[in-house]
Backbone:
């Protein structure tokens, strides 16, 4: 029993401490950009999928309402995903990006067996490997990545093993942190949120870097019609939510999130300071899909956001309206658009941070925003 406890303590220690080691040229087969400045690539939900990844009888029995979605994601994976990745890869080369970060739901899941879940996940990993990015590719745990028979087991065995190789560090959970130059990256597992928050609090005790990028699948701050799809959204989780918000505000975090397949940039104040939240999706419905529902300005952050998806969960309308009303006084900057694509984040020699967001597979930025200035407003 003593040996078991010692082993548990060792693994817990390794997951908090060892995963905080810095990246560098010695850890990867490339030479990082010179100086303090660097760039990195940002992808949202992808939902990599093929029809052969699924036991159709399982879907008909367990997830009949998702069959149409799976057919659509399989089409997008075949027709549009390669164009997205080719465009992003060329952009990464052009800006000499040091790393890639994907914000969860990189696969569709719902496969029906551990064998099929492994096939789907491994095909995505192989796809990324065959792109010869020559840079580490990090993923956040999304709900679809762990949904369906065998999906959680595959995440633990296959995904963490893959991420361990990308990071060149021991990983025992989907929570990890690393330092690159003067920036700390936190990969936060919101599907073990209570444990993850305790882990994050310990990590922040050692945080000395100028910049903090907090990466999580679910939004921290609601910003759309689905204003109940954020972390710690239940009323009985308010204490933990405030604890997380204040910790992020205290360290002026730049929060990177997916989940909703929309684009948003906002600033939120807390009692400890301000944070910026970026939301992005990478499910490209068409390479020339139009931007819809573009909103800008704090006045646009109100209950009218619920009207953007009028058929979504009518039974939760009041809850979602109340969530937006609660957040409204704390929102200091707001942009929103129904668009998907990819993004690049640039850190200057003076640690100023900006984001360029690319619509669909475009090579020219749809918008560019100075995130450092937003933390000051």
Residues:
């Amino acid at each position: 029993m003593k040996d078991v406890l010692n082993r548990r303590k060792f693994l817990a220690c390794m997951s908090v401490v060892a995963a905080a080691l810095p990246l560098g040229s010695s850890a990867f087969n490339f030479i990082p950009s010179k100086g303090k400045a660097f760039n990195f690539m940002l992808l949202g939900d992808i939902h990599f999928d093929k029809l052969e990844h699924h036991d159709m009888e399982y879907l008909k029995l367990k997830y009949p309402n998702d069959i149409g979605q799976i057919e659509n994601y399989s089409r997008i994976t075949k027709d549009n995903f390669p164009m997205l990745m080719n465009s992003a890869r060329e952009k990464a080369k052009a800006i000499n990006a040091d790393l890639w970060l994907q914000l969860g739901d990189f696969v569709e899941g719902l496969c029906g067996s551990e064998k099929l879940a492994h096939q789907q996940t491994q095909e995505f990993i192989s796809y990324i490997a065959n792109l010869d990015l020559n840079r580490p590719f990090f993923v956040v745990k999304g709900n679809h990545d762990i949904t369906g028979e065998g999906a959680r087991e595959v995440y633990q065995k296959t995904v963490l093993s893959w991420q361990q190789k990308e990071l060149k560090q021991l990983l025992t959970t989907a929570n990890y942190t690393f330092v690159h130059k003067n920036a700390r990256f936190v990969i936060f597992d919101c599907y073990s949120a209570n444990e993850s928050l305790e882990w994050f609090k310990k990590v922040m005790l050692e945080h000395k870097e100028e910049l903090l990028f907090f990466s999580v699948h679910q939004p921290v701050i609601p910003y759309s019609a689905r204003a109940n799809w954020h972390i710690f959204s239940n009323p009985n989780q308010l204490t933990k939510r405030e604890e997380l918000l204040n910790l992020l505000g205290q360290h002026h975090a730049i929060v990177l999130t997916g989940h909703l397949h929309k684009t948003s940039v906002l600033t939120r104040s807390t009692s400890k300071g301000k944070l910026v939240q970026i939301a992005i999706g990478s499910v490209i419905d068409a390479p020339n899909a139009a931007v819809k529902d573009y909103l800008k300005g704090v006045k646009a952050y109100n209950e009218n956001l619920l009207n953007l998806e009028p058929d979504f969960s009518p039974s939760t309308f009041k809850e979602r309206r109340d969530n937006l009303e609660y957040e409204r006084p704390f929102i200091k900057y707001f942009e929103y658009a129904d668009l998907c694509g990819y993004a690049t984040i640039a850190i200057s020699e003076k640690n100023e941070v900006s984001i360029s967001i690319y619509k669909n597979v475009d090579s020219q930025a749809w918008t560019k925003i100075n995130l450092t200035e937003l933390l000051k407003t």
